[in-house]
Amino acid sequence: MMEDRIDDLFGYVEERCLWQFFSRTWDRQENIDGVLGQAERLLSGKEPVRETPMDKLFYADALVMVNDFRERFPWIREVEPEEVRELLDGLKARLVDVTITRSTNRELNHHLY
Amino acid sequence: MPMVLLECDKDIPERQKHIYLKAPNEDTREFLPIANAATIPGTLSERGCAFCGAKLVIGGVLKDTIQMIHGPLGCAYDTWHTKRYPTDNGHFNMKYVWSTDMKESHIVFGGEKRLEQSINEAFDEMPDIKRMIVYTTCPTALIGDDIKAVTKKVMRERPDVDIFTVECPGFAGVSQSKGHHVLNIGWINEKVDTLEKEITSEYTMNFIGDFNIQGDTQLLQTYWDRLGIQVIAHFTGNGTYDDLRCMQQAKLNVVNCARSSGYIANELKKRYGIPRLDIDSWGFNYMAEGIRKICAFFGIEERGEALIAEEYAKWKPKLDWYKERLKGTRMAIWTGGPRLWHWTKSVEDDLGVQVVAMSSKFGHEEDFEKVIARGQEGTYYIDDGNELEFFEIIEHVKPDVIFTGPRVGELVKKLHIPYVNGHAYHNGPYMGFEGFVNLARDMYNAVYNPIRHLAAIDIRDANPKAMPDRVREAA
Amino acid sequence: MSECNVAEVKPAEVKFAARERGGIINPMYDCQPAGAQYAGIGVKDCIPLVHGGQGCTMFVRLLFAQHFKENFDVASTSLHEDSAVFGGAKRVQEGVMVLARRYPNLRLIPIITTCSTEVIGDDIEGTINICNKALKAEFPDRQIYLAPVHTPSFKGSHVSGYAECMKSIVKTVATKKGEPTGKLNVLPGWVNPGDVVLLKRYLKEMGIDHHIFMDTEDFDSPMLPGKTIETHGRTTVEDIQDSANAIGTLSLARYESDSAAKYLKDEFEVPMHAVDTPYGIQNTDAMLRKLAEITGKPIPDSLVHERGIALDAMADLAHMFFANKKVAIFGHPDLVLGLATFCMELEMEPSLLLIGDDQGSKYKKDARIKALKETADFDMEIIHNADLWELEKRIKDGAKYDLIMGHSKGRYVAIDANIPMVRVGFPTFDRAGLYRKPTMGYQGAMELAEACANAMFAHMEYTRNKEWILNTW
């Protein structure tokens, strides 16, 4: 069941989120970590962090995504706070694999923009 | 084998690496078209050159800047009257183009004096204009003219002018994409953080990668005004040279066209810590999402919701009218690159349109990651498509409408396929809520135009083809 | 409108000068490779291959599409940095072979150089020899002509590039003298399909068997039930081969077609007959008289009739509306000089003529310019090597023109200064269907005169300037 749920979330992110496809691996990693970090707080009922400009950016991206999750995937309301992390870790693993580890994009590791 | 070797490409089999037909349960880890690679000579590719990527796409949009093209007159002539980016000061940018008119003697003896003369003449002839971009072209790059030295000399002699140089000859890189890159990086290195402007709002952003095609920038600006957000610089729609020197002052970079302008957003993040937020400005759903994100960043979510509600109330019924009639339309998108991924899902979600083939002139592999993630199965994804491939793809996917440039539009007209100008639009703007209704209207008018059906009728037939049941209605 | 003061009579002055500025603000012309591409697309089963950056091709194809609302095939060698360093000959070879393989009907490839490949110094003739061997090996049953066209962008303009490609195509394809064909070569220069159709009609009415180079009639092509695409030149390789065996060559454009005509004369002793481009009545008269002289065939009643119709229409307009109107004209030199005569026939005063590129010394020998100097009884400026700023600057400095005649690249001069403008020449993308209209011949003169009148009438109405005159006209 966890895998199906991760499929749902991954399907959503794949279709809608531009932050996973930034130009370089480190930006992709930073975005994935940042947005999913804020998403975890939002989904667990915690206050998001909104201190630095980057916090605010990840909050903005996460907020829209989490609201869409709630609208599209009613099951997410049932997810216990302790399961949220597992769910998002699963999503993160998929995103990292597709957009970083096994991406064949030849520009991802160029040290300059 | 989901990478496709088309029949017309049997003699150039390397094209197989550039054409992908998406099948179920596949993703870009296995199949990603090779992109931003050299074109095969003689293929009738759609690509332009690096110079045009810098001048025509980005620099030439500015409304207060002389575009001095150091080279033979053709490079100036060709990048003039080929874009639709108006300005609020009478379209200075579309009316004029400047060339140093290099002749053989300048090629032999060097063109620096000619450049200096032309720069001074241009400022003398138009004394109100104080800003200029100088571009190299193929021959002036090959002979090694030092355009920076010339512009520095002129700036010393004319303290009230400021000149930026772009050294990006047409043969650089594989497409116009190289020119985007050179201009982006040159600008951040040389011009950003050389000026400060008055800050009038606590919410400030740069809007990057939108070129005011048929007024896109100006339409979106009405949103930012209503939200109380100060746009420090538009990169570069309806923009000014000096605004772009102040980009460091913004708190947020909002990026629409990541292909042409992602570089400067990346650098602004790296050097000034300004976050980069990528949004899609075409489509209802997307535009609302972009506004929500911007407002969430600034903590003004309720303003954003109010704006979205107003715009939805005003435009959504019109959009739905078109959606009702466009549902199931088969669309092809053959444009530069980013519009593939900006549009494929927005036309699907907002208009019920199915995108069946997409070709990108200058997209990179990143653009294909995006579009394949967003696009449908059974759809072709093509890098640097050429004319014979287009014919073959049309046979395979039978599109009802193609969003592409006017020349290809003229070509497919003969096949009775209507086109909508996917670069410069038919009657835009297309961005924002109102804009997407415009896009829907133009698509509807194209798909339902009676002429394409009349063209299919052979008047000599005893039983000619009937006109379709679905007919055009007044909107 | 005219002042009623009796002005002091001073002799008319005709000034002939070059643009004084070094740089260009708003060019009148594109560069040589663009003109070469235009000549190339006039041949059937021909795809020009431009040896240079991709922009040199992509924008020119777009320009043709803007003007004709049609697509034309032109290929590029897609020159990149490595070629700039090591030479681009390999890319030409690859381009030729790819075209030959993918386009089985292809018979002619003009290989058009650009500024970059001329600076690099690629050996086009040597490369063609290599390509010819490769083509022969791979396609023993096909003859594909490769024409070297040297068109560095830093010389001339699209006008001279057109001439260069015409000449090279003739030189490459018409290689031997054969049986006389009894046909006349007609070289109209860079004109619209509307003019090609008109010339064909005139030749037919005179009973003259002919080939038009290039026959661009199908640049205005149909949407057909069978979805076939007929947008291409009608001139065939055989037509070009036959040009060496013609009874003569009639060249209608000094700067666009004379060089090819001269080549046929020098190489194959095909008599060359050059006349002034037939814009206006007198130039058309001269062309028809020349045709009669070459062929011994009389000018038919039908053309006498058409001439009369044109004069009748023009007489209704001339001294009522056109007299003393100052006209600024810009575009191809053969067009501009022809239109100047045309304007004078209509009692207008072509006071500013902008002609192009860097052929100042050539223009000095142009008899038409000499004739204008002798006949103009009003002040006239002829600016060569001109750009469109020459016109705009004069208007900003107070010069008054009642009408502008020229191509669409000058549209904003007319729009901003609120001067009626008639689109003529190339390109005319901001008006519908002009490529279909003749501007040559009697019909062309009449239609152009009427276009001038209608532009002025509309302007009178929009500016409320004696628009009531037309209440009773």
UniProtKB/TrEMBL annotation, chain A:
<keyword id="KW-0560">Oxidoreductase</keyword>
<keyword id="KW-0067">ATP-binding</keyword>
<keyword id="KW-0535">Nitrogen fixation</keyword>
<keyword id="KW-0411">Iron-sulfur</keyword>
<dbReference type="Pfam" id="PF03139">
    <property type="entry name" value="AnfG_VnfG"/>
</dbReference>
<protein>
    <recommendedName>
        <fullName>nitrogenase</fullName>
        <ecNumber>1.18.6.1</ecNumber>
    </recommendedName>
</protein>
<dbReference type="GO" id="GO:0005524">
    <property type="term" value="F:ATP binding"/>
</dbReference>
<comment type="function">
    <text>The key enzymatic reactions in nitrogen fixation are catalyzed by the nitrogenase complex, which has 2 components: the iron protein (component 2) and a component 1 which is either a molybdenum-iron protein, a vanadium-iron, or an iron-iron protein.</text>
</comment>
<keyword id="KW-0479">Metal-binding</keyword>
<comment type="subunit">
    <text>Hexamer of two alpha, two beta, and two delta chains.</text>
</comment>
<keyword id="KW-0547">Nucleotide-binding</keyword>
<dbReference type="InterPro" id="IPR004349">
    <property type="entry name" value="V/Nase_d_su"/>
</dbReference>
<dbReference type="GO" id="GO:0046872">
    <property type="term" value="F:metal ion binding"/>
</dbReference>
<keyword id="KW-0408">Iron</keyword>
<dbReference type="GO" id="GO:0016163">
    <property type="term" value="F:nitrogenase activity"/>
</dbReference>
TrEMBL record, chain B:
<protein>
    <recommendedName>
        <fullName>Nitrogenase protein alpha chain</fullName>
        <ecNumber>1.18.6.1</ecNumber>
    </recommendedName>
</protein>
<dbReference type="InterPro" id="IPR005974">
    <property type="entry name" value="Nase_asu"/>
</dbReference>
<comment type="subunit">
    <text>Hexamer of two alpha, two beta, and two delta chains.</text>
</comment>
<keyword id="KW-0560">Oxidoreductase</keyword>
<keyword id="KW-0535">Nitrogen fixation</keyword>
<keyword id="KW-0547">Nucleotide-binding</keyword>
<dbReference type="InterPro" id="IPR000318">
    <property type="entry name" value="Nase_comp1_CS"/>
</dbReference>
<comment type="similarity">
    <text>Belongs to the NifD/NifK/NifE/NifN family.</text>
</comment>
<dbReference type="GO" id="GO:0051212">
    <property type="term" value="F:vanadium ion binding"/>
</dbReference>
<dbReference type="GO" id="GO:0016163">
    <property type="term" value="F:nitrogenase activity"/>
</dbReference>
<dbReference type="GO" id="GO:0051536">
    <property type="term" value="F:iron-sulfur cluster binding"/>
</dbReference>
<dbReference type="InterPro" id="IPR000510">
    <property type="entry name" value="Nase/OxRdtase_comp1"/>
</dbReference>
<keyword id="KW-0411">Iron-sulfur</keyword>
<dbReference type="GO" id="GO:0005524">
    <property type="term" value="F:ATP binding"/>
</dbReference>
<keyword id="KW-0479">Metal-binding</keyword>
UniProtKB/TrEMBL annotation, chain C:
<dbReference type="GO" id="GO:0016613">
    <property type="term" value="C:vanadium-iron nitrogenase complex"/>
</dbReference>
<dbReference type="InterPro" id="IPR050152">
    <property type="entry name" value="ChlB/BchB/BchZ"/>
</dbReference>
<dbReference type="InterPro" id="IPR014281">
    <property type="entry name" value="Nase_VnfK"/>
</dbReference>
<dbReference type="GO" id="GO:0016163">
    <property type="term" value="F:nitrogenase activity"/>
</dbReference>
<dbReference type="Pfam" id="PF00148">
    <property type="entry name" value="Oxidored_nitro"/>
</dbReference>
<keyword id="KW-0535">Nitrogen fixation</keyword>
<dbReference type="GO" id="GO:0051536">
    <property type="term" value="F:iron-sulfur cluster binding"/>
</dbReference>
<dbReference type="InterPro" id="IPR000510">
    <property type="entry name" value="Nase/OxRdtase_comp1"/>
</dbReference>
<protein>
    <submittedName>
        <fullName>V-containing nitrogenase subunit beta</fullName>
        <ecNumber>1.18.6.1</ecNumber>
    </submittedName>
</protein>
<keyword id="KW-0560">Oxidoreductase</keyword>
<dbReference type="InterPro" id="IPR000318">
    <property type="entry name" value="Nase_comp1_CS"/>
</dbReference>
<comment type="similarity">
    <text>Belongs to the NifD/NifK/NifE/NifN family.</text>
</comment>
<feature type="domain" description="Nitrogenase/oxidoreductase component 1">
    <location>
        <begin position="31"/>
        <end position="456"/>
    </location>
</feature>
